[in-house]
Amino acid sequence: xxxxxxxxxxxxxxxxxxxxxxxxxxxxxxxxxxxxxxxxxxxxxxxxxxxxxxxxxxxxxxxxxxxxxxxxxxxxxxxxxxxxxxxxxxxxxxxxxxxxxxxxxxxxxxxxxxxxxxxxxxxxxxxxxxxxxxxxxxxxxxxxxxxxxxxxxxxxxxxxxxxxxxxxxxxxxxxxxxxxxxxxxxxxxxxxxxxxxxxxxxxxxxxxxxxxxxxxxxxxxxxxxxxxxxxxxxxxxxxxxxxxxxxxxxxxxxxxxxxxxxxxxxxxxxxxxxxxxxxxxxxxxxxxxxxxxxxxxxxxxxxxxxxxxxxxxxxxxxxxxxxxxxxxxxxxxxxxxxxxxxxxxxxxxxxxxxxxxxxxxxxxxxxxxxxxxxxxxxxxxxxxxxxxxxxxxxxxxxxxx
Length: 401
Known about the structure:
- Adenylyltransferase that mediates the addition of adenosine 5'-monophosphate (AMP) to specific residues of target proteins.
- It catalyses: L-tyrosyl-[protein] + ATP = O-(5'-adenylyl)-L-tyrosyl-[protein] + diphosphate; L-threonyl-[protein] + ATP = 3-O-(5'-adenylyl)-L-threonyl-[protein] + diphosphate.
- Its EC number is 2.7.7.108.
- Residues 135-286 form the Fido domain.
- By secondary structure, the chain is mostly helical.
- The chain folds into two domains: 16-298, Fic-like fold (Orthogonal Bundle), CATH 1.10.3290; 318-387, Arc Repressor Mutant, subunit A, CATH 1.10.10.10.
- The protein has 15 helices and five strands.
- Strands 3-5-4 form a three-stranded antiparallel sheet. A two-stranded antiparallel sheet has the order 1-2.
- A hairpin with a 5-residue loop joins strand 1 (16-20) and strand 2.
- Helix 1 packs parallel to helix 11 (277-316), helix 3 (94-101) crosses helix 4 (113-129) and helix 13 (339-346) packs across helix 14.
- The radius of gyration is 23 Å and the shape is elongated.
- The two termini are 18 Å apart.
- The relative contact order is 0.17.
């Protein structure tokens, strides 16, 4: 492993130790959190924590100024789902996910789009579950089950902790050639139990530091045969919401992890190899601050777009403006619609709905998405474009087993 730039020190057994196993390979046994000696929360790391806290506060405030914030969470969650899945090698884009959810039966949709759909399902399930169940081993297993149901990795016992050894490394490598070997399976329940205890214990460790530590520890434990990276990134969102740092899950942190994917993995490995918790936490906090500012700007642009399009509908649709506004609000939660959807939404005839959609196309609000004469679908493309694609999809599989 190449040493990441700016490592802060070498304490090889600080995060745990590599232990020889009966069959000859060495697996890593993580030490319980918090790290010993404690994280040095001073200097640059203290400044980065303050910056990340401020940026998250701005993001949370900007989302709450949006009319009906729940409408806009839809796309933030989907952007995170796409990017987190792309880190692990999926080819599906945000457009593909929205098309799949709108039931476009196209041979051109990537086969792995169902994995991204599952990520959205797991995210929404977990957020709802937090009302009655805190972040815990039980919740993590329930999330994993939904993440892998019926997709690649479904044979890897969804929802069940692994009973065999896994490892991370180049394709085709053996245990002895692996970049990293997580703890042997018999240690996994205890290690996860210790992580749960850390998350629930009274502590004066700042919440963002706790969350950064927990993500790295989960990735080190690697408790499942597949899906560990995605579950670990979901864990960040759940903890931010459970701790009420964010009221809504609008931080697509996978954008930063994907953009700096090599350093992401190197920083995690430096924790294990040389105990560099401070280097990992600095990287994590930079990501939180960077993506928070970007997501805040997205909220600002959503508000500007909404005002512009409300004005177009009011001025351009005359007596149909009321139904036009109904459609416009619906598009923030479902940005791809068919005429039949508009017919049901407005309780009008198919002809009236078709005319309304045609006029919204003329106003530049909707764009025809299929090129068909019948069974056409229409995208709220300007809104989708605010979320972009976050980088090039499909850069090859990452190390998530």
